Each structure stands twice: as structure tokens, then as C-alpha cells.
Amino acid sequence: MPINYYIFLSVALFCIGVAGVLTRRNAIIIFMCIELMLNAVNLLLVAFSKMHYHALSATTPNAGIDGQLFVFFIMVVAAAEVSVGLAIIVMMYRNTHSIDVNFLNRLKH
Amino acid sequence: MGTTQVLFWFLSILALLGAILVVTSKNPVHSVLWLIVVFVAISGHYILLNAQFLAIVNLIVYAGAIMVLFLFVFMLMNLNSETEPQKNRWLKIAGVVTGGALLLVLVAALKEADLKTQVEMGRGDSGLINNLGMVLFHDYVVPFEISSVLFLSAMVGVVVIGRKTPEERVGAIGDQKYGG
């Protein structure tokens, strides 16, 4: 597979995530769109890792393995981020009885 | 067109369709379920790229743990279609146009790029758990340990954020005693 296909697939997934963040008002859906963008980046990192492997596997047997480890660390950070973010959303629901991000404009006043 | 190509196009279309339905679904629970479909498709891509460890971790951590967490939060909140926040139609169109413009710019910038490089499909053992573990515990052992501190701080943060304030707690006990 040419690397172009993976690049375009990841770009399309990322842009769908961006459009979702901009169009939806539900805080949890916005959060899910951020997860979608993180996964698009993960897919591209793995594809580049295997591209690197294809180019360099003759000389170094573990070429491109760093990209896959970066994906692993991204997943670790995303898991921590999701737990903290959902706790913040639950607290926001408890205070305002809504998860509409339009209600979170109190810093303006 | 070999099996790998057919699987690639199938998984790509599944991922894109699921992603679009995540954004457009009215019911938030359907959004969560479509996001699980997207994650399964991305895991299939990892298997096609022979990154088995990441495929399994993606399925367990994302499609398993994180999405269950989302579903539990939705169940706790008792949301339905009436409470779904509505917004201005023009703002929605503006958001879609902005995302499409970003897509257009990135595709136009990358279309002419001379990337003749191929991706290695289904071969090479750099994604197996043995090799990844060797590199992880030799070269990346310090970030690995730091991530455990990150998890500890996230756990403490969740408990601190999710705790009720003393006034709320007194109110809840009062409701329990006198309410009902």
C-alpha cells in the first residue's frame, strides 16, 4: 500500500473530528471527537513506522519501532485524560444540570 | 486486487462512515456505539500493518475501557433527545465548512507530494510484543515510569474533582432523612 492512502485516510478522520468539535454542543460528543482525532494521528504514526521499516529493514531489524511506542504512550496519556475530563463533565452536570457547552460562558461576566 | 487491498478499502470505508455517524447521530449513545465501530476498524488497520500489540491494546483500552466509561457517564446523566442542546443552523454550517476547508487544504498540500514510498503490509515483526517490550523496557523505561506517576495524579485528580463539597453532602444527608 502506498503511504498516501494512509495519509489521506488519517487526514479525513482528523477533519471529521474537527468538524464534530465545531458543530456539536454536547460536551461528551466533543470529547469523543477529540478521541477520534487522537486515533487518526495514531493510525498515521503506525503507518509511518511501517514505512520506515520498509525502507530500513535490511540494515536495522527494529527500524520504525519508536513510532509504535509513541502510539502506546499516546494511548496511556489519552486514558488519563479521559478519566479527568469525564470527571470534570460530571461535575459540570451536577452544577448546571446540562452538558451544553454554551452554558460554560461564566468567565465572560 | 488482493485480499489486503480489499480489507484496506473495507476498513477505511467503515472507519470514515463510523466517524461521520459519530458526528451526525442525534442520540449520544448511538454516537458512542459508532465510535466503537471506528476503533474496531482502526484496530483492523493495525493488524493489517502487522502491529498486533497496538491492535490488542487499542481494542482493550479504547473500545473496551474508555468507551464503557463514556457509556456509564451517559447512563448517569439521564439524557434524552429533549435535553440535547440545539444550536444555530448557520453555526453548524460554518463548522462543517471549516472542517471541509481544513481537509481541502491538507489534501491539496499533500496531493502533489512525491511519496512513492510503500508501507510494509503483513510482514516484519517490529510490532510484536516481544520486540516492543524489549525496546520499551530498555530505551523508554523512564517515560514508562513517569506515565505511572501521571496515572496516579490523574486518579487523585478525579477523586478531588468528583468529590462533593461539604454543603452538598450535608444537603444530601438532609434529603435522605427528611425527604421523600
Structural commentary:
The complex is a heterodimer of chains A (109) and B (180). Chain A is mostly helical and 109 residues long. In chain A, 76% of the residues lie in helices and 0% in strands. Chain A contains 3 helices and no strands. In chain A, helix 1 (3-23) runs antiparallel to helix 2. The longest helix of chain A is centred in the C-terminal third of the chain and has 32 residues, at 65-96. Chain A is elongated. The model of chain A has no long low-confidence stretch (mean pLDDT 87). Chain B is mainly α and 180 residues long. Chain B folds into 2 domains: 3-125, Four Helix Bundle (Hemerythrin (Met), subunit A); 140-180. Chain B has helices spanning 3-24, 28-48, 52-77, 89-111, 129-138, 141-162, 166-178. The longest helix of chain B has 26 residues, at 52-77. The chains are: A mainly alpha (109), B mainly alpha (180). At the A-B interface, helix 1, helix 2 and helix 3 of A face helix 1, helix 2, helix 3, helix 4 and helix 5 of B.
- Compute the gyration radius of chain B: what is it? 23 Å
Strand content of chain A: under 5%
Largest protein interface, residues of each chain: A-B, 76 and 81 residues
Oligomer: heterodimer
* CATH architecture label of chain A: Orthogonal Bundle
Class of secondary structure makeup of chain A: mainly alpha
End-to-end separation of chain A? 54 Å
In the residues of chain A, how many domains can be counted? 1
What is the β-strand count of chain A? Answer: 0
Mean pLDDT of chain A: 87
Question: How would you sum up the global shape of chain B?
Answer: extended
List keywords for this structure.
A: 109 residues; mainly alpha; Helix Hairpins; 3 helices; B: 180 residues; Four Helix Bundle (Hemerythrin (Met), subunit A); 76% helix; extended
In short:
Chain A is mostly helical and 109 residues long. Chain A has three helices and no strands. Chain A has one domain: Helix Hairpins, CATH 1.10.287.3510.
